[in-house]
């Protein structure tokens, strides 16, 4: 594989791994369906296309910022920032859906939001377009945090 396409393949692969692992720990079965949800919750069918778009934009931002960054520590920081974000993305799904602890997920979503904000800043330092491509992700995680808070308020306490 040429050096030009290697970052694209790696970014796409990383996005797919995060998507598949996150999806594997997401159970929208009877427990989730029984939760009271806020009036502003989007329909369930919207989540898959929204996340597909977000993962695609994130992969593109990763490639753009990687190509614009100098080899060495700058690129290493990009990898760390994107890897940490992927971990936090999956962790939120595990806490909310896998462990059925929206209250714990509400705490974690703060770290996920800060991780995305960091990506916007770190990637955007190297490529303005990369930073802009991450803004929908930031908005979606912010909205997810509001939804998460509403679910906790409407259904808590959890873990009893």
Write structural notes for this entry:
The chain is an all-alpha fold. The chain has one domain (8-22, 44-155): Ferritin, CATH 1.20.1260. The protein contains seven helices and no strands. The protein has helices spanning 6-24, 30-34, 47-68, 73-98, 102-126, 128-133, 135-155. The protein starts with 5 loop residues before the first helix and ends in a 5-residue tail after the last helix. The mean pLDDT is 95.
What's the quick description here?
The chain has 160 residues and is mainly α. The chain has seven helices and no strands.
CATH topology: the name is Ferritin
Mean of the pLDDT scores? Answer: 95
> How many distinct helices?
7
- Reported CATH architecture: Up-down Bundle
How much strand content do the residues show?
A: under 5%
SS class: mainly alpha
In total, the number of domains comes to 1
Radius of gyration: 17 Å
Query: Main sheet, how many strands, which sense, barrel?
Result: none
End-to-end gap: 53 Å
What's the helix-strand series?
HHHHHHH
Estimate percent helicity.
Answer: over 70%
* Secondary structure tally: strands: 0
Q: Can you tell me the CATH class?
A: Mainly Alpha
* Shape annotation: elongated
**Stretches where pLDDT falls below 50 for ≥5 residues?**
none
């Amino acid at each position: 594989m040429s050096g030009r396409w290697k970052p694209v393949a790696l970014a796409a692969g990383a996005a797919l791994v995060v998507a598949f692992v996150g999806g594997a720990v997401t159970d929208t079965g009877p427990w989730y369906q029984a939760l009271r949800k806020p009036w502003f919750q989007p329909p369930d069918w919207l989540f898959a296309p929204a996340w597909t778009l977000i993962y695609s934009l994130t992969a593109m931002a990763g490639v753009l910022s990687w190509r614009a960054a100098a080899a060495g520590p700058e690129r290493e920081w990009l990898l760390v920032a994107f890897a940490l974000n992927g971990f936090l993305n999956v962790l939120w799904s595990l806490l909310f859906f896998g462990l059925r602890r929206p209250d714990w997920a509400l705490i974690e979503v703060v770290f996920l939001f800060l991780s995305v904000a960091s990506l916007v800043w770190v990637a955007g330092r190297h490529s303005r377009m990369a930073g802009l491509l991450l803004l929908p992700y930031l908005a979606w995680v912010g909205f997810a945090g509001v939804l998460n808070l509403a679910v906790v308020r409407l259904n808590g306490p959890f873990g009893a």
